[in-house]
Amino acid sequence: MNTGLDMPQLIALAAAIGWASGVRLYLVVLLTGIVGYFGWVPLPSGLQLLAHPVVIAASGFMVFIEFFADKIPGLDSLWDVVHTAIRIPAGAALAASVFGADHGVMAIVAALLGGGFAATAHAAKATTRAAINTSPEPFSNVGASLVEDSMVPAGLWLAVAHPVVFLVLFVLVLVLSVWLIRKSWRFLKALFARVARIFSGRPDPGVVPAFQLKKNPPGDTPNV
User: Fold this and answer.
1) Helix (H, G, I), strand (E, B) or coil at 196
2) N or C: which end of the chain has fewer CB within 10 A?
3) Which residues contact 85 (CB under 8 A, 6 or more apart)?
């Protein structure tokens, strides 16, 4: 594997690419291809194919589509559902490509961890955005999407420029992602349960009926 990156940089880059693929797969491919094409970063041999002009053009087109699709409430969640089968295996493949055939064991480990990181990031993004979509205003949705847009290039840059700092922050991001998944899932589960009660005609325990007779002591006149 002929590359100017040292082992800490390669490990951080594999983690960053795997994780970021679960958030913005096409942006990962585009940015990696651009920095490789212009020679800003010496890409590992397994990633050099991303610097091909056709790959850059195709990923750039998909970045353009995703940029707008991800900011429309409802459509963003549909986009996430469709990409569940794309982001995770792609994250595993790209993470493994950082090491390539010259480091077979590291490539297998990177594929396993990269797929797991992509799955975690994708689940955190999808559940959080689904919870945000329950709000009638669109601004929080757009804001969350812009944050995701900025996190991907920042993470990729930090992985190469300051790999140790990235790996420390990356552990914190993973913990935060797991927390977001749990909180968002609990919120969505409670919301679905409430909607099911409404359509089934059962009373919602969190809502007091508007015309509920109050119980009065014996001898008092009942109040409504």
Assistant:
1) helix
2) C
3) none
Consecutive H or E run containing 176:
helix 163-200
Distance, in Å, from the CA atom of 20 to the CA atom of 33, rounded to the nearest integer, reads 15
Q: Can you read off the two tokens belonging to residue 151?
A: 């996190």
pLDDT tens digits along 126-185: 989 888 888 777 778 899 999 999 999 999 999 999 999 999 999 999 999 999 999 888
Token code pair at residue 166: 């990235």
- Residue 73 is which amino acid? P
**DSSP letter for each residue of 31-99:** HHHHHHHTTSS---GGGGGGGSHHHHHHHHHHHHHHHHHTTSTTHHHHHHHHTHHHHHHHHHHHHHHTT
For 208, phi then psi, to 5°, come to -85, 125
Place of tokens 């969190």: 206
Q: Which amino acid is at 211?
A: F
Confidence band for 219, pLDDT divided at 50, 70 and 90 = low
Q: How do residues 80-109 score in pLDDT, each as one tens digit?
A: 999 999 999 999 999 999 998 778 899 999
* Sign of the CA dihedral with 103 first, then 113, 41, and 38 last: positive
In Å, the largest CA–CA distance within the chain is 93
146-150: which pairs have CB atoms within 8 A and are 24 or more residues apart?
146/71, 148/23, 148/24, 148/70, 149/24, 149/27, 149/67
